[in-house]
Write a structure and sequence with these properties.
By secondary structure, the protein is mainly beta. The protein is about 10% helix and about 45% strand. It contains 3 helices and 10 strands, in the order αβββαββββββαβ. It has helices spanning about 1-25, 90-95, 225-230; strands at about 25-45, 55-65, 70-85, 100-115, 130-140, 145, 150-155, 175-190, 195-205, 260-275. The strands form 2 sheets. An 8-stranded antiparallel beta barrel has the order 1-2-3-4-5-8-9-10. Strands 6-7 form a two-stranded antiparallel sheet. Strand 8 and strand 9 (about 195-205) form a beta hairpin. The chain is elongated and about 70 Å long.
């Protein structure tokens, strides 16, 4: 009986000691894994005035490695759709040009995140921070359009003379480099879960996200009636008596690279541990 009583006393003491030790341990956020959903939009030769017509969906996954309460490194994977049409323009020339495109984007980026405030999940004092993010990445794209309700990919056609060697033009790459630059807000919902809002612009090294960049090649450089000929100049659909696609006439603006933006919300789950607090 005495042995049982002593065993119970020892157990209660051990539990209390462990609880007390746990209470004084310091929470350490090691990182996060998360998912995002949002909208993507394009800016370039068809959207020269930063119009926001018809944003398209995006989804993402990320892993963030935390280095203290202010700095983190992040790996992102995104799928997004972008597209635009001259029909949205207020410029008469663009309306008559009558070009349009859509594209699927698959993107991988490495980014650095920098919190403005100290951020410790699960605490009231440090449960929110704005942040900035910057990095570098790679993406693939595949511009396409519709002709007589048929989906047609544009790169294989060489609509600016790439396949016929016009003035040395070569077929553009289906992949590109992007530089994401953005801002966000981060909220701690609990010790385990965070919520984020982020808007990030992607600067790219390509002017062919929309398959439009330089000048018209002219219909004489294509087989008459071919798909490439019909899609290199679609002004005939607007005004057959005023065709824009004469050889050498401006089709796009090659000195300005295309861009796209992703605005998204995210939910992340913390990877954490505990440690004894420092003497400071």
């Amino acid at each position: 009986m005495k042995i049982r009583f002593l065993a119970i006393i020892v157990l209660i003491f051990s539990l209390n000691t462990t609880k007390a030790q746990y209470q004084y341990l310091e929470y350490v956020q090691k990182g996060e894994v998360g998912i995002t959903v949002g909208a993507a939009h394009y800016f370039g030769d068809l959207n020269t005035r930063a119009g926001l017509n018809r944003p398209k969906p995006s989804v993402g996954l990320f892993f963030r490695k935390q280095f203290g309460n202010y700095i983190a490194a992040r790996l992102n994977a995104h799928y997004a759709q972008v597209g635009y049409s001259d029909t949205y323009s207020k410029n008469d020339y663009q309306k008559t040009r009558n070009l349009s495109f859509n594209s699927n984007i698959w993107e991988l980026t490495a980014q650095g995140d920098f919190n403005f405030f100290k951020f410790i999940p699960g605490t009231k004092e440090f449960s929110f921070t704005p942040y900035v993010t910057v990095g570098i990445g790679a993406f693939s794209y595949d511009p396409y359009t519709y002709l007589n309700n048929e989906k047609i990919f544009l790169r294989p056609l060489g609509t600016e003379g790439q396949l016929v060697g016009y003035k040395g033009r070569k077929q553009y790459s289906p992949t590109g480099i992007c530089i994401p630059i953005g801002v966000g807000l981060k909220f701690s919902l609990s010790e385990k879960i965070n919520f984020t809002i982020e808007v990030t612009q992607r600067l790219t090294n390509t002017d062919y996200l929309d398959d439009v960049s330089t000048t018209y090649v002219g219909s004489t450089n294509f087989t008459t009636g071919s798909t490439a000929a019909l899609l290199q100049d679609r002004s005939y659909e607007i005004d057959p008596a005023n065709l824009l696609g004469r050889e050498g006439r401006q089709r796009g603006f090659s000195k300005q690279r295309d861009q796209y933006i992703i605005a998204e919300i995210g939910l992340s789950f913390n990877i954490s541990t505990y440690r004894c607090p420092s003497a400071n």
